Every structure is written in structure tokens, then in C-alpha cells.
Amino acid sequence: MHHIETVAVSDSIMEVFMFEPEGAGPHPGLVLAQHIPVGHTGVENDTFTLKTAERFAENGFAVAVPFIFHWWPKEAEMELKRDAFRDDWTALDLQAAYDLLAARDDVDAGRIGIVGHCWGGRVSWLGACHNPDLKACAVFYGGRVKQSMGPGTPPAIDLAGNITCPVIGFFGNDDQTPSPEDVDDYDAALSAAGVPHTFHRYDDAGHAFQCFTNEERYHPQASEDAWGKVLAFFKESLG
Questions:
Q1: Catalytic: 187?
Q2: At CA 2, angle to CA 209 and CA 171, rounded to 5?
Q3: Is the dihedral of CA 137, 54, 61, 133 positive or negative?
Q4: Where are the alpha helices (DSSP H) in 131-204?
Q5: What's the CA gap between 158 and 164, in Å, rounded?
Q6: Is 165 annotated in the active site?
Q7: Low-confidence ranges of the chain (pLDDT < 70)
Q8: Shortest CA distance to 65 belongs to which of 81, 52, 83, 84?
């Protein structure tokens, strides 16, 4: 079960889908960063993200899913949203979602992490770079971490030194966005910054290997292995 809250981010109204676990809490929380959905509509039509949030909630986490593409009309072409994407706007979106979680009586504000897949994997990394209150970060095959997005913004990889929480990453060795060489660079940046991190790499798996709505890319063995590892990571990091 979930409900939708709205919040103003720089005068733009953003929907945040809130998923609640059973029990009174206080629960650990997660900000779930959306991948680029199929089509041009919101979270409500993104089956993968909805089911992913539900699974985290079933495992005891309160989850906030901000619609980070609210800056453009929902019917606008995804190519426009991708090309005009801005990290400075997105950092505000993630902070707003974090604040909604942290303000809840049934959430422990000291135990909130962030996670995302694909585009959301990059966004998860970005969020950890901008919010020192986050206690854990999970990146699923996030590409473009080495690219800047938006005027005057550095590549997200250059902000690794700002991350104050442990990071876990999941990548397919057949992926090219990010490629194995990109993942090596992510690893090196986190190591140079002294950020505790663990990366898991899967042979015979490519991009979006957890996306069960995409039969060509879905790799059930890698997906379930990653599910077990990310849940264990969050339960250890967030208590």
C-alpha cells in the first residue's frame, strides 16, 4: 500500500510516493530514485519502481519515491527530460524526499539511506554526495556518473569525497552504461576518497538485470542474489 504526498521544490510541485511497512516503527527509511521509465508518465505507471518500493517496504523499510522528472510535463518526450536533466535540481528533489521521510513519526531520521537503478543509480550516488545525513547508499548499474549534468555542475564522480556513508554497488559485466571500465573508475574514486564500499559484478548480466518488466534484460539469478545482498547491507547499515 502507498499514498502520494506533494511538496514544492523551487515552486515546482513534486509527487512523492510513500510506502509504509507494517508495524508502528520507528522504521528505517529509504529514498528510492526512479529509473527512466518506459513512456512519458509518472511513477504511477512505472511497475518496476512500484514493485521495488513494495519489496523494500515488505522488508521493514519506509520508502519515499520522488518523481524527479516533475520539472517537465509528464507527456513531454523522455529525450527532452534526459538531455535537460540537472543535478542541482535533482539534489533539491532528493532532499525534499528525505525531509518527508525524516519528519514522519514512524521513521527513525537517523536511519535513512538511498537506492536507485539505472538512471536512479546515478541519482543515488548524487544524493549521497549532497546529503551527509544519509547512512547508506546502493547503486544499481548507474551510468553517466562520470558525466556532468546541468550548467556549472561537476561530474558526479568528482564529488565522491563528499560521501559520508558506506556504498554498495551492483553491476553487470556485459553492461556498457556503465562499462566494466567505468565501474573500475567508480571503485577508484571511492577508494581515493576513503569511502567504504563493496561492488558486486555479475557475469552474463547486462544493464537493468533486475528489471523484471524487460524480458530481454532481466537476469533472475543475478537479480535475486543482488536482492539478498542489498537487503543485508541496508539492515546492517540502517539497523
A1: no
A2: 15
A3: positive
A4: 180-193
A5: 14
A6: no
A7: 37-41
A8: 52
Structurally, the chain folds into a number of domains equal to 1
Instruction: Dihedral sign for Cα 235, 219, 118, 203, please.
Output: positive
Which of 166, 168, 146 shows the shortest CA–CA distance to 157? 146
**The pLDDT value given to residue 37:** 67
**Contact status, residue 33 vs residue 115, Cβ threshold 8 Å:** yes
Q: Are 165 and 134 in contact (CB under 8 A)?
A: yes
Nearest CA-CA partner of 116 in 224, 36, 174: 36
Catalytic, out of 35, 175, 211, 219: 175
pLDDT value of position 39:
56
Mean pLDDT of the chain: 96
| Entry pTM | 0.97
Which of 118, 129, 137, 165 is an active site residue? 118
Assess contact for 97 and 124: CB atoms under 8 A.
Answer: no
pLDDT at 79: 85
Compute the distance between CA of residue 33 and CA of residue 217 in angstroms, rounded to an integer.
20
pLDDT of residue 38: 59
Task: Give phi and psi for 58, each to the nearest 5.
Answer: -65, -20
Distance in angstroms (rounded) separating the CA atoms of residues 221 and 165 = 28
The answer to whether 137 is a known catalytic residue is no
Catalytic pick among 70, 130, 207, 219: 207
Secondary structure (3-state) at 21: coil
Grid coordinates representing 107 are 521513521
Length of the chain: 239
Expressed as residue numbers, the domain containing 117 is 2-238
Strand pairing of 197-202 and 137-140? unpaired
CATH number at residue 201: 3.40.50.1820
